[in-house]
Amino acid sequence: MHALLVDLRLALRSLRAHRATTAIALACLALGTGASTAIFSVVRAVLLERLPYAAPERLVRIHELRTRQGVRDRYAASVPNFQDWRATNRTLADVAAYALASRNLGGTEPLRVQVVRGTSNLFTVLGARPQLGRAFRPSDDEGTAVLSDRLWRARFGADRGVVGTTVLLDGVPHTVLGVMPPGFDFPVAAEHTDAWIPLALPPTRENADRTSYWLSVVARLRDGVTLDAARADLDAATARIRQDHPELGASFGALVEPLRDGAVRTVRPALLLLSAAVSLVLFVACGNVANLLLARAEGRRREVAIRSALGAGRGRLVRQFLTESVVLALTGAALGVLLALAGVQGVVTLGAASLPRADAVRVDVPVLAFAAGLALLTGLVFGAVPALRATRRAAGRELAEASVRTSAGRAQRGTLSTLVVAEIALSCVLLAGAGLLLRSFARVLAADAGFDARGVLTFRVNLPEERFAVDERYSRFVAPVLARLRALPGVRAAAMTSALPLQPSSGNGSFRIVGQPWDADPQRRPFAEFRVVSDGYFRSLRVSVIEGRELDARDAAGAPKVALVNAAFARRYFPGESAVGHALYAWESAPSTIVGVVHSVRQLGMDQDARAEVYAPAAQVPQRLRAMTFVVSTTGDPLALAAPARAAVRDAASDLPVYALTTMERVVAASLLTRRLTLVLLGGFAALALTLAAAGLYGVVSYGVAQRRREIGVRVALGARGVDIGRMVVGDALALGAWGLALGIAGSAAGARLLAGLLYGVDAADPPTFLAVAAVLAVTVLAASAVPALRAARVDPTVTLRAE
């Protein structure tokens, strides 16, 4: 312990004696460890931390696998298939099903809440217990509810007497059974669940349809059962279902995956990419610090020689050097944690709408332990090389050379140069990644969305089944609201839709074209996205009509049934001919005649190609008028109509809350949130790494010039011009940059797989991006070497040689 205290005292004295070097090293380490700690906080909460359920590693999601339009993908499950899985499997302890929904919570201020409808065993499967009251029982009907802790505190003031009381959900009384504990949420998603209600599965026609898939399935593995065993068991069960029901098709299957994998599937690639990027930034920071310590160690040769002559062994000297580097690293990590606190808040603010478990991201004890461990590791890594190099020569030789100024040895300069080349290569990898994402983001923004988002206000309303009779929903609610909206000053057009562009699908399925055979295999049947819209919808979003007409007042409830399709639908199902005039069966037993073809809209995302879509007039399918979105096209600021829009809904139904009120431009921006967050962070890391690499290159070139002053003086005395000396210095720097660029491009090619799923319209080996990276690195190298080159060009040979 005494020896350790002595080492610490000497380390602090040495760091104080070289304040400039210490400050630069601390800045590098603070930036590197701060960025690493911030990203680790996010990765830990989203990807690593245990989910708030009992033994979450044994929980799995089960999906149906189906082939649609040549693409095999996962889907929700049908009720009969879920029931067969639950009854025939041998590896699952219990299987539950649920469906997402939303409800209007009654009260003095109506509130829209997110609801999960789950089978009575849902909480049993999750191994979750309420903090108040109880969970579902098989005897509970759909008139009961369990509240989240968040809703309980915000709406009911954490009143413990809420259990047993009645709340109104869509106007229907629900008895509160219990309140879940803080931190519990299911399913794991960016949007939190406010309440859970029982899900009954009566033997209706829809629930007996094996091609009607709308249930999400969660299950718990039996003790000792592996995921592979469960997959084999479900494959066998699915094969039996397929054999008993050949109408499902040969491609019908089941997918079993860990519960967490399904929750983080969309954000995992971005988080892994950012983790790799921030690791490279840390390596660059460590390389910079190692260069600083190497340069400083060269100036401590006399100190080392004296201590060695006085009896200090090499191990003792190495320990002292490592103590200094660890103290430096721990101090830098402490500063980095302060930066991480701000960084975490920024990441959560930017990504809250797309990051599941964003509220669990925090800098806590495990994160601090990570930062401390990272500091110890980096301290040992960047301190080892300088320590070994500074202590490897014999004491007598060092004493003999200590009084003579010599040029740095080739090995010393080689080590410094190697570290700088590595820093440049790592910076090149980050720059290439950021450049590819930037090019991809530009391609996404330039993609034809199919609509014009400018000047459009949008908001959502949910119409409970009990609020109006089915045949009155359009006439008593939708039509009056639209009439009031269209009468507002500055409104160009107003309409209603069942699904806003760039939003998840709200309905899809097979349909039959009149005059074409009906395929026995459901996987090969025509398939499309279904949308319900009112007249004026396409004018509101400036969606052009390619052929025929759009919907209008002629398409009333008692009129002949009509439909519009998009261009993708027409190309796929009516190639080489007009779709107008054809009829199809989509919603009802009566066919709908196609009266128009509209421009394709990117319904699922700016980076997702448009799918085949069918639009039905709202007045003709009132049974589908429940969750609806209104769009209002204005000539001015759309948000200025927020209050009048709420009033329009309130006049038609005072108890219905208006929610998700925003502009269409913000909807577009929200759909790009994950891409934008990834681009901003990766671009920031690339800029930071490039800055650190430039600083490292500047230091190495400056150190080289200082060590070669005698050589430069001799060259000038022999007739070399200042411009020749400057060109020599810049040339050496460019050589280092060229090596770094070559290695960086090779590294970028090797790491392209991390980016593949995040790119759109850009190849991972995009030549313009790598040319731009080369240009940026060339400018950076020239800028970093300019000052040392000017200093070298001004060396006075007389003064230099006299000093030698």
From TrEMBL:
Domain MacB-like periplasmic core residue range list: 22-236, 476-634
* Compartment(s) of residence: Cell membrane
**Domain spans labelled ABC3 transporter permease C-terminal:** 277-393, 685-797
**A GO MF label:** transmembrane transporter activity
Q: Entry's InterPro entries? A: ABC3_permease_C, ADOP, MacB_PCD, Macrolide_Exporter_MacB
Q: Which UniProt keywords apply?
A: Cell membrane, Membrane, Plasmid, Transmembrane, Transmembrane helix
Q: Give one Pfam hit by family name.
A: FtsX
What is a single cellular component term in the Gene Ontology annotation? plasma membrane
The residue stretches assigned to a coiled coil in this entry are none
Q: From the record, give the transmembrane residue ranges.
A: 270-294, 326-348, 368-388, 415-438, 679-706, 727-750, 770-790
Primary site of residence: membrane
Could you tell me the membrane topology recorded for this protein?
Multi-pass membrane protein
Family statement drawn from the similarity comment of this UniProt entry: Belongs to the ABC-4 integral membrane protein family.
The family database entries (PANTHER family) matched by this protein are listed as: ABC TRANSPORTER PERMEASE YTRF, MEMBRANE COMPONENT OF TRANSPORTER-RELATED
Q: In its UniProt entry, what is this protein called?
A: Permease
Annotated organism of origin: Gemmatirosa kalamazoonensis
